[in-house]
Design brief:
- The chain is of the alpha+beta class and 272 residues long.
- Helix content is 29%, strand content 26%.
- The chain is built from five helices and ten strands.
- The strands form two sheets. A six-stranded mixed beta barrel has the order 1-5-2-4-3-6. A four-stranded antiparallel beta sheet has the order 8-9-7-10, covered by helices on one side.
- It is globular, with a radius of gyration of 43 Å.
């Protein structure tokens, strides 16, 4: 073998060994990469309609109400005043005020002398001598009163209590409190009889006369009631003599929408 042939064979052997080593290294590296690769995380499954609705209900529930909330569990009620259950169809909720001096000792609408230390009240439409239970919705304290007077003639109030009654339900300090009124007197006609709608009260009788003359063209009969209050005489302008409380309230809403009045539906008593 010549020297050139031997050199060529050594060169070919070198290339062959180098190629074998390269294949071995590449294969090991490939296996290491494959062994260390983690599969990609699976995407989360879409929520079902049922789970979405369940989540919505839980988030819509809101915070747990406190005891000051009207939706919280009420405190235990005091024993209620004796009397028959309220007749079906008459339980009223609204605001109550109270009155004392300077009305004390003056004549009430039913003819009695008002005594602020007795359990009485004023209401615009309940018959005189109707006995009602009045419950303060802020503290659940209740009192039982007899209707002897007419009023209050202030919007958003439904009953005016004597001082004694206001003390029983702890409303003297606040002055005006939300209440529930339940009729206890059995066998009375609460909504029957005649009613009128008060549309104004004036110190000057001429102003009352002018309003009566204007309204009498469209809403007869219109009449004026004189009322001697502790701070002077007022002249109350009242419209209509309507049979039934429901019809009177509809008439009052008609006067509100057409004329812009703040109407007060009032029962017409025997002496009126």
């Amino acid at each position: 073998m010549t020297y050139s042939q031997a050199a060529r064979r050594r060169t070919n052997l070198f290339f062959l060994l180098s190629f074998a080593c390269l294949c071995l290294v590449t294969g090991c590296a490939s296996r290491r990469v494959t062994a260390n690769r983690q599969p990609p995380p699976s995407p989360p499954a879409p929520a079902s309609p049922e789970s979405i609705e369940s989540t919505k209900r839980s988030t819509d529930a809101g915070p747990t109400p406190t005891m000051g909330s009207r939706t919280a569990t009420p405190s235990p009620k005091r024993s209620k005043s004796p009397g028959t259950p309220a007749p079906a169809g008459y339980t009223e909720e609204g605001n109550a005020s109270w009155y004392g001096i300077p009305f004390n000792g003056r004549r009430a609408s039913n003819g009695e002398i008002y005594d602020m230390y007795k359990l009485t009240a004023a209401h615009r439409t309940l018959p005189f001598d109707t006995v009602v239970r009045v419950t303060n919705l802020n503290n659940d304290r209740s009192t039982t009163v007899r209707i002897t007077d007419r009023g209050p003639f202030v919007e958003n109030r439904i009953i005016d209590l004597s001082l004694a009654a206001a003390r029983e339900i702890e409303s003297v300090g606040p002055g005006v409190v939300p209440v529930r009124v339940e009729v206890l007197t059995p066998g009375i006609d609460l909504t029957g009889g005649y009613f009128t709608v008060q549309v104004g009260a004036f110190r000057d009788p001429n102003n009352a006369q002018r309003l009566r003359d204007r309204l009498n063209l469209s809403y007869p009969p219109i009449f004026i009631q004189q009322y001697d209050s502790p701070d002077g005489t007022y002249y109350r302008v009242r419209a209509g003599k309507v049979s039934g409380e429901d019809a009177a309230r509809q008439f009052g809403e008609q006067l509100r929408s057409r004329e812009g009045f703040t109407p007060f539906v009032v029962r017409l008593d025997d002496q009126q």
